[in-house]
Amino acid sequence: MSITLEDIAMISGLPIEGRALTGKVRAAGWPQRVAALVGVEPEPWTDETRKDPRPSGVLFSWIQRHFHRCPRDASPLVVERFASAYLWNLLTQVVFPDGTGDTASWMFLDPLRDWDVKWSWVRRH
Question: Which domain holds residue 78?
Fold first, then answer.
């Protein structure tokens, strides 16, 4: 058994038909774009003895720490932020995992903020 494109569309709500999700990825200002998407900016890396493990995004543990459970009395804005964090985590851990195994890539931040564009998130063969 394997996961199909239709499964991904049904589970995530992400369309599989529309404009191809392509283009340039901007690295500059990614912490601020994280804050724009989920309302929390990642803390600056301060450990001088180790290289920053987050050059391409935030650690999955950071998402888990900040968005583990949405409060019952959350405002619509907070619910939207938790949903965005969930989708970001789902995209980077399940649908499009990379070689790091521990990082949610910032490359999906801009497309996740713009729901008016009808992106095709998954390429059909």
Answer: 26-115
Domain membership of residue 123 (yes or no) is no
pLDDT digits (tens, 9 = 90+) for 67-105: 999 999 999 999 999 999 998 998 888 878 877 788 888
Does residue 125 sit in helix, strand or coil? coil
Domain count, the chain: 1
In a domain, 106, yes or no: yes
Alpha-carbon span 30 to 36, nearest angstrom: 10
Does some domain include residue 94? yes
Residue 58: CA count within 13 A, CB half-sphere = 26
Tell me the DSSP string of 92-105: IIIIS--SSSSEEE
